[in-house]
Amino acid sequence: xxxxxxxxxxxxxxxxxxxxxxxxxxxxxxxxxxxxxxxxxxxxxxxxxxxxxxxxxxxxxxxxxxxxxxxxxxxxxxxxxxxxxxxxxxxxxxxxxxxxxxxxxxxxxxxxxxxxx
Length: 117
Hints:
Elements: E1 5-14, E2 23-33, E3 46-53, E4 60-65, E5 81-86, E6 93-99, E7 111-112
Antiparallel strand pairs: 1-2, 2-5, 3-4, 3-6, 6-7
């Protein structure tokens, strides 16, 4: 992983979906170390975007974003993602990290800080 460290922590509790008896609700936290420094005069301004892939679909949809932390290569994000997890169902999650250089909310306007697992 080239010296990069990623920490994803989840805590679980009983689920909130009455239609599915085998679900739990989870809180997911994301921490990153040794991000790429893509800014010229300062350090990167990272944000994590969580995408969820629909069941039986190849389409990814944005679920949520962390806060932007300015000028750091070692962010500890405060925002947590709350998700329902369903047993016996494959649920694909993707965490993308971007460097925010403008006020645009359009994620394609920002530089990806690619992480290879």
